[in-house]
Design a protein that fits this description.
37% of the residues lie in helices and 15% in strands. By secondary structure, the chain is of the alpha/beta class. It is built from 12 helices and 13 strands. Helix 6 links the parallel strand 3 and strand 4. A 7-stranded mixed sheet has the order 2-8-7-6-5-3-4, sandwiched between helices. It is globular and about 55 Å long.
């Protein structure tokens, strides 16, 4: 090993983000972005930024966003922490809770960043396979971990664990349970009510999916003050820039626009699910803004490659349990129609 870096970092298999095509005409439905623009109020908020705003460092504790999000969720502002995307907040909590003798636990398959964050901290992982129909595995409460993460709704399976089952898990753990609700805007339920009864629960939310702010990189967590205060200890001094704070605050306050946008995606999700089923894909229920679609003939990898040749980008995971599937983000009506037409041709050609 090189003497320049820690051995665990040298050996690290880095997270692979979804491909970002430079061609704006590409049909990009591979990274679960919202296909519609943000609220007009976001652009108004950004236009109000002036030289003085940019000259100064941004608010350290995201005061205006905290107040706006607290009002939306019915919690105290001190129960909220903002970050440079949900990934930064995941990294902060892993740094707080995990290390060489404090592993990270989570059910699999799930978001592939989790093991990378553990490896950076030289922490082990306890990967427990989901139960039937993606139920919480019993063994997840028996890992002796420093932190357990449950992505719900889960990526990439699009499945959803009922909140009462999560409450039972939280009650069996003697450490922090992070519920990654990055996709919960598209589900019928969420875990916010657990905060009153489960002091070890912290909830992660994203502004990338329902609010169309993936390019701004803004996420936040909601949890007990003890958890938030500890996470703040290890964050960067000014971890969210002023433009992102302004955009996120405006977006979360515009509830009417948010509700309409989410409804459009849910409606398109159902239309796309039906279309894929008619083409022979196996598609389960989804509580997210994407579908996990299984196909065996032609092989999923071949379909993925043929779509790429047509400038249509979906996500393919070459790993156990997922190699016969494609993860497809819900696009606009026009994008979903173009995908369906391309898939008809690819399947017909075999």
């Amino acid at each position: 090993m090189s003497p320049w870096f820690r051995d665990n970092v040298e050996a690290l298999a880095a997270y692979t983000p979804g491909y970002q095509p430079a061609d704006r005409s590409a049909i990009k439905i591979n990274t679960n972005e919202n296909p519609y623009p943000p609220s007009p109020k976001v652009f108004e908020a950004l236009a109000r930024l002036d030289g003085e705003s940019l000259r100064r460092y941004p608010p350290v504790l995201w005061d205006e966003f905290r107040r706006a999000a607290a009002a939306v969720h019915g919690v105290e502002p001190e129960m909220i922490m903002a970050g440079n995307g949900g990934d930064e907040l995941l990294a902060i909590l892993v740094r707080c809770c995990c290390g060489p003798r404090r592993p990270l636990a989570y059910p699999v398959p799930t978001y592939s960043l989790y093991p990378v964050l553990a490896a950076i901290q030289d922490a082990g992982v306890r990967e427990i396979p989901f139960g039937a129909d993606y139920a919480i595995p019993e063994a997840l409460s028996e890992t002796a971990a420093g932190l357990t993460i449950l992505c719900n709704p889960n990526a990439p399976t699009a499945s959803f664990v009922p909140v009462d089952r999560i409450a039972e898990l939280a009650g069996r753990l003697d450490h922090v349970l992070l519920i990654d609700e990055a996709y919960v805007d598209f589900a019928e339920d969420n875990c916010l009510r657990l905060l009153a009864e489960c002091p070890n629960v912290v909830i992660l939310r994203s502004m990338s999916k329902g609010y169309s702010l993936a390019g701004m990189r803004f996420g936040y967590v909601i949890g007990a003050k003890r958890i938030i205060e500890t996470m703040i200890k290890v964050k960067d001094s000014y971890n969210v820039n002023i433009a992102a704070q302004a955009a996120a605050t405006a977006a979360i306050r515009d509830r009417d626009y948010f509700d309409r946008n989410v409804r459009r995606i849910i409606d398109e999700r159902e239309r796309l699910r039906i279309a894929l089923g008619e083409l022979g894909f196996g598609v389960g229920d989804s509580r997210t803004n994407f579908l996990l679609a299984a196909i065996s003939r032609p092989p999923a990898r071949k379909v993925y490659e043929k779509l790429t040749e047509r400038n249509i980008y979906v996500r393919y995971f070459n790993q156990e349990g997922l190699a016969d599937k494609l993860r497809i983000s819900v696009g606009t009506s026009a994008q979903n129609d173009a995908l369906r037409e391309a898939l008809e041709e690819i399947i017909r050609q075999g």
